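Task 17 of the worksheet. Students: predict the tertiary structure of the chain below and write it out as structure tokens. Keep your answer in the requested format; marks are given for formatting as well as content.
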Amino acid sequence: MKEERIRLGHGSGGLLTSKLIRDVVLRYFDSKILGRLEDAAELPAEKKNLAFTTDSYVVDPIFFPGGDIGKLAICGTINDLAVKGATPKFLSFALIIEEGFPIVDLERILRSATRTAHAARVSVVCGDTKVVDRGKADKIFITTSGIGVIEHNLCTTRIRHGDRIIVSGTIGDHGIAIMNERLKLGLQFKVRSDVASLHGLIRNILRTGSAVHFMRDPTRGGVVSVLNEAIEGMRNGIIISETALPIKKQVRGASEILGLDPLYIANEGKIVAFVEEKKADEVLRIMRAHPLGRRAAMIGEVVGKPVGVWMRTGIGGTHPLMRMEAEGLPRIC
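Model answer:
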């Protein structure tokens, strides 16, 4: 029997990633908290529960239009806490640096990370630095962890029939910005990454009380992965409208050139929210009033049947939106 080995697709956020985690990793860790596979773990505390998350960043290239690996690491960890309904408080910041990496680039990354953390009012309180031999890594990798205080109960068990699905802005921007730089496509139009800290936007919409049932940021695997994961194991379905999807013309055009679908492309500054039907318009209005949510859109709803995730096309037909085995964009974050 041929020995199985890790492939790039195992880190894509698609079905290969899910299979690796469920069939291999979780065999060795039996924590019920980990088994929920949420962006942030909820830990019991005396007054308010804590959210705890960790992530590693290996993006290539490390500098890209709209951001860099340092900003990405801070924003990504803050967002994983915020979509759990937590106020981000403390972060760690660990570096793995390849021998020969320019210190001037390291300082550029650290300045960016510091500015992002200060703007978000979170503190980097611990970290680590390791240097590996030349050729044993690719420039620099960053691992961050974060702790926040949970203020709101957001989980998939709160999703209900009739919930409206809102995305906070245009999708696919980050993935296309990365691929344009990496592949040197020479596109006449520049696409900037959407990387941003979303806790302010999230805080505003959560002031509506219990209207928001569940949220997640559609990073690896894009919007389709979030939607499929949200209703996994449920008897509900989701229908989204093709004509309601907010996609920039540049992103749509670049996606067609690359043979990609923006719904499967990573974002680093967007959220997908499941919102109570009666308050969906209010939540959408609040989103659009925030600088990071000006192009927010209501893209679909939770239905009883058909089960699964479906898209209603512009000509009235429907087709399923399945999770891909592996996303076509490795090392996107």
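Marker's comment: The longest helix spans residues 103-120. The domain at 38-150 is CATH 3.30.1330.10 (60s Ribosomal Protein L30; Chain: A;).
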